[in-house]
Structures are given as C-alpha cells and as structure tokens.
C-alpha cells in the first residue's frame, strides 16, 4: 500500500560545485550556482541564477473593528503606487523577526500592538530568490504620538498615507485585482481565513522558522 505524502516543506540542499558572483548591491546579491542534479532524467550539472536577499517581515494590523491597516508606497521596479501592509528588511544583525516587525509598524504606520502572532511564512519567489518573509498578525493597537517616533521617513516613505479598510473589503479588493503587493495579498487572505477559527491556530510571534 502506498504511503500518503506528508504535505510539509522540508529543507534540502543539493550539491553546489561552483559559484560565480554576478552583482553585489546594497540589499541584494546575484550569483550563478552550478548545481548537481541528483534525480530524474536531467542528472548532471546545471546552472541556476539566484538572488540572495536578507529576508523581510510584514505586519497585518487588525483593529477591534476588524479593519486592516494599509499604507500606500511607490514601487519603482513595477511603476506603481501600491497598497501594502507595513513591512521591512531584516537588516539588523541578530534582531528577532518579531522585534523587526514591531519596529516597522511604529516607523511606517505609527502604531504599536499589544498582541502578536505569526500569521504565515512565505518564500516570495523561490524559483529565483532565497527571500523569506514572515508576516505577523498584530492586534490590540494603539497610536504612537509623533514625538515618540525616532524615525525620519524619506524618499518613497516620505508620503505614505495610512488608511483603515474593513477586512471583508480588503479581501474583495484582492479578488478584484485592486491590491497587488504579495505581502498584502497573502496577509489579508491569511487573516480572513484565520478569523474563521477565532485565530486559535496561529503560532506564537517567536515561533521557530522551520
């Protein structure tokens, strides 16, 4: 009798027999790995291009009226003003993801949350990048007085309006194609699904990254 497949992502690393760095920027690096294929008809050495990324966090902030906090930010690569959730790079060495998320929520939106859970973990584009993002659910929110925010918003972050959108409306906006940012889309749909069980199945904010 065939054993059922276990639906759980597991780490695995195939042998890399050579690496060539193509580009090193302020945030990302691009390299070509020569990877030994251990299975299938394509066994042998193949080249795979890879964008190395430090990782990110996102925050789906939900208030007591089940409204989602969204911000709008210009994104140059796609040429859009996108509605997003607060998010940021994991660029502080040794900082736990949930602390990075707390900081980003204050800096980008001006809010603190008393209740945090891990909502979902996502590889944003695993065919070409190792970027991993953990999206948190933040609730029991309070606004932070402007004088307490030790952060200056510049460049794309200088003009980011903050709006509160009912979760049902945000879901409808996703399906209508009005919201494109992958972190926002994932967070909105995950929060809507988690709400059906009263958020009881969510992991702790400091849950291990498997």
Low-confidence stretches: none
**What is the helix/strand order?**
EEEEEEEHEEEHHE
Number of helical segments with 4 or more residues: 3
User: What is the number of strand segments?
Assistant: 11
Helix-residue proportion: 10-25%
The oligomeric state of the chains shown is: single chain
Rounded to the nearest angstrom, the radius of gyration is: 19 Å
Residues in β-strands, percent: 35-45%
Strand order in the sheet with the most strands: 7-4-9-8-11
- Biggest sheet record: 5 strands, mixed
Q: Which class of secondary structure composition applies to the elements?
A: alpha+beta
Separation of termini? 30 Å
Describe the structure.
The chain is globular, with a radius of gyration of 19 Å. The two termini are 30 Å apart. The longest helix is centred in the last third of the chain and has 14 residues, at 182-195. Helix content is 17%, strand content 39%. It is an alpha+beta fold and 210 residues long. A five-stranded mixed sheet has the order 7-4-9-8-11, sandwiched between helices. A three-stranded antiparallel sheet has the order 1-2-3, with no helix packed on it. The protein has helices at 97-109, 167-175, 182-195, and strands at 16-24, 29-37, 44-52, 56-61, 67-75, 80-84, 87-89, 111-123, 132-143, 162-166, 203-204.
Brief account:
With 210 residues, the protein is α+β, with helices and mostly antiparallel strands.
What layout of secondary structure does this protein have?
Elements: E1 16-24, E2 29-37, E3 44-52, E4 56-61, E5 67-75, E6 80-84, E7 87-89, H1 97-109, E8 111-123, E9 132-143, E10 162-166, H2 167-175, H3 182-195, E11 203-204
Parallel strand pairs: 4-9
Antiparallel strand pairs: 1-2, 2-3, 4-7, 5-6, 5-10, 8-9, 8-11
